[in-house]
Design goal:
The protein is of the alpha+beta class. It is built from five helices and eight strands, in the order H-H-H-E-E-H-H-E-E-E-E-E-E. It has a domain of 130 residues: endopeptidase domain like (from Nostoc punctiforme) (endopeptidase fold (from Nostoc punctiforme), Alpha-Beta Complex), CATH 3.90.1720. The strands form two sheets. Strands 3-8-4-5-6-7 form a six-stranded antiparallel sheet. Strands 1-2 form a two-stranded parallel sheet. The protein starts with 16 loop residues before the first helix and ends with a strand.
Length: 274
């Protein structure tokens, strides 16, 4: 035995092959990882860098604000549209009013002209009637004597024509109860004035006129006969027969002095004073 055998050796113990292999594997793995990392770094360096912007997250308040803004925008649009419609309607109404006013003025002007023409015509007819009345009065005064009202009247020749001419000259005059001319009559005043043209003085009222002259049947009438409606002596209306089944009278306020057919309103009786 060596005299140094009991002294521990200062050599490092040999590593076993398995430990060496393990360490080599670890080292290789590290190197491989570094190599891969380096390669990845090189690849990443070659690629372009892009930046990702993160969009803000919509919160409840932001959503409410957006909704309110949309509502306000819609309300404004509706308001503008409503105003536009109102303006269009107002413009249309103004145009229509202007057209209506023009039509009304045109119609009023036409009515004024028609009224003026009617008045002129009425004045001319009135003047013509007045002239004819004057002429008839002159003819009556120079054509022969008259007589007082009685049941036996002897009028001058041609007196029936004077009566009928006077009556026709009053056509269109008004009917007014109690009136005695020259432009308004009631039934008996017209008959009285007409027969006065022939020199015959008749009573003023229809009741008395129905008792004058000679009673004749309504089927045997002659021009100039006095027609009456109602009872003899109590007649309520009178007129004068002018031939062809017609008579002339101051009918009523609605008609005035007119010519009518006996077939439409048959008389109760008739008297002849001429």
């Amino acid at each position: 035995m060596s005299h140094t055998a009991h002294i521990p050796s200062h050599r490092k113990p040999r590593r076993s092959a398995s430990k060496i292999a393990l360490r080599a594997g670890v080292a290789g793995g590290v190197l491989s990882t570094l190599a891969v990392a380096a390669a990845a770094g090189t690849a990443n360096a070659a690629e372009p860098v892009s930046e990702t912007i993160e969009m803000p997250t919509l919160t409840a308040d932001l959503s409410a604000q957006i909704a309110q803004s949309a509502d306000a925008t819609q309300q404004a649009a509706d308001t503008y549209e409503s105003r536009a419609e109102q303006d269009a309607a107002a413009a249309k109404a103004a145009k229509q009013a202007k057209e209506d006013l023009a039509k009304a003025e045109k119609k009023a002007e036409a009515e004024r002209k028609a009224e003026a023409a009617a008045k002129k015509k009425a004045d001319e007819e009135r003047a013509s009637r007045s002239t004819e009345r004057t002429s008839l009065s002159t003819q009556s005064a120079t054509g022969g004597g008259g007589s007082t009202a009685s049941n036996s009247v002897a009028p001058a020749s041609g007196s029936v024509g004077a009566v009928i001419s006077f009556l026709k000259a009053q056509l269109g005059d008004a009917y007014v109860m109690g009136a005695s001319g020259p432009n308004a009559w009631d039934c008996s005043s017209l008959v009285q004035a007409a027969f006065k043209q022939a020199g015959v003085d008749l009573p003023r009222v229809s009741q008395d006129q129905s008792t004058m002259g000679t009673e004749v049947g309504t089927s045997n009438l002659q021009v100039g006969d006095i027609l009456y409606w109602g009872g003899k002596g109590s007649a309520y209306h009178v007129g004068v027969y002018i031939g062809n089944g017609q008579y002339l009278d101051a009918a009523n306020p609605g008609k005035g002095v007119v010519i009518q057919d006996l077939s439409g309103y048959p008389a109760s009786g008739a008297v002849r004073v001429l």
